[in-house]
Amino acid sequence: MSNPPNFAQAVDLSSLGKPKAAPAGPMPGLEVTAANLTADFLPLSSAKPVIVIAWSVRSPESMEMVNVLGGLEKSYQGSWALARLDVDAEPQVAQALQTKNVPYAVALIGEQMVPLFEQSYPEAQIRLVIEKVLTLASEQGIGAPPVEISEPEEDEAMIALEAGDFKTAEAAYKKLLARKPADNFAKLGLAQTQLLIRTDGMELQTIIEAAAKSPKDIKAQLQAADMEIVNGGVEEAFNRLLHLVKETSGDERTKVREHLLTLFTLIDPTDPRLISARSALANALF
Hints:
Blueprint: E1 30-31, H1 36-44, E2 50-55, H2 60-75, E3 81-86, H3 91-96, E4 104-109, E5 112-117, H4 123-139, H5 152-162, H6 166-179, H7 184-199, H8 204-213, H9 218-230, H10 234-247, H11 250-264, H12 272-285
Parallel strand pairs: 1-3, 2-3
Antiparallel strand pairs: 2-4, 4-5
């Protein structure tokens, strides 16, 4: 069994700043060290996927991601294993896993490394990533594919969506959120349904032409971005609203930014178009 690449070199994460307070109490997951990465975790990855989350006391966001993944590990009842890597204590392992910043997550599947994400995301999006990891692993004969467990309201919403009854689907998701306010899948389903409601009956070319004629019309630009997302124009929608963020201020900028953030939730967190757009938004705002 060979070591991961570049194992002998240390990683430079000095941009994180000074250390913060250490976590209170034990953290979820198994601790990764230079000794047990190849001795324990790589062999384990041939039995079930291992998700390694790199964190640091200098990054509260990374510590929160460890806790989010810890909760998800419990909910998946042992179908995958969580490993946590303290980049300050184990810089050589951080370098081996090609860590550039934290939080950073990779999956180990059959002793092979699969990069997952390198910033914080909502739990619902992290769950989608885990589903893909489990599916990929099962295709390689490792573990079982993810088992879908749905709520009654979610079933109601899906039936309504298949029938094109978006209002009933919206009501079902709202009912589920009233019962389970923290259900991130319901939040995602509601956002997707509300996008369908906003674009129902609209024609792409008509909306795009109207937006082109009125570049300063906020409503027209938001509608155009919605239609582009629905029709697969993710990059076009993001660029449209990023440009609008730069061109607006005050309440108008807030409205555009919030709409853009809503569209972000609809895209796979590992999608490079989303990663690029998030970075561009941060630059536009700060």
